[in-house]
Amino acid sequence: MDDCIFCKLVKGEIPCSKVYEDENIFAFLDINPVNHGHTLVIPKKHYETVLEMPEAEGVALAKASVKLGRAVKKATGCEGINLLHNIGKAAGQLVFHAHVHLIPRFSHDTMRLGWDRKKYESRAQEEEYRKKVEAAARK
Ligand code: 5GP
Ligand code: ZN
Prior knowledge:
Layout: H1 5-11, E1 18-21, E2 25-29, E3 39-43, H2 55-76, E4 80-84, E5 100-105, H3 123-138
Antiparallel strand pairs: 1-2, 2-3, 3-5, 4-5
The structure holds guanosine-5'-monophosphate and zinc ion.
C-alpha cells in the first residue's frame, strides 16, 4: 500500500533497525520504544489489522512472534514481555498495518497498562456474552 509507513519500511524506502526477515514476515525495533529492544513484528503484505489476515499468514505471524519473543528475552535480559496487538483506533492502534508489539518488561519499569475491570451484572448477562461469542466463533 503506497501511503503506509510500514509498507515503506518493508520495501526499504524508509530506514529502520531490522532484526528479522523471511518470506512473509518483517521485524524491526520500534522507533519510540517503551523499553530498549521493543520490537514490532509485521506481515510483509499489507493488512489493516490481524483480523483481516488469512489463517496461514496469521499462523506465520504468531510463529515469528514467539520466535522473536525468545530472541528479545535473550537479547535484553528482560523479566517478562507484553505481546500486544492494538486492533482498531479504540484499542490504541495508530499504524493501520497489522503488527505485534514485543515489549520487554522489567519489574520496576515505567510502563503501566490501565485495566479498570467491570463485573458482569449477573450470571445471566455473562451467559448472554458467552453465547454470542461462541456463536460468532462457529461462523
Ligand atoms: P500502534 O499504536 O499502532 O500499535 O503502534 C505503532 C508503533 O509503531 C508505535 O509504537 C510507533 O512508535 C511505531 N512506529 C511508527 N512509525 C514508525 C517508524 O517509522 N519506524 C519505526 N521503527 N517504528 C514506528
Ligand atoms: Zn502497509
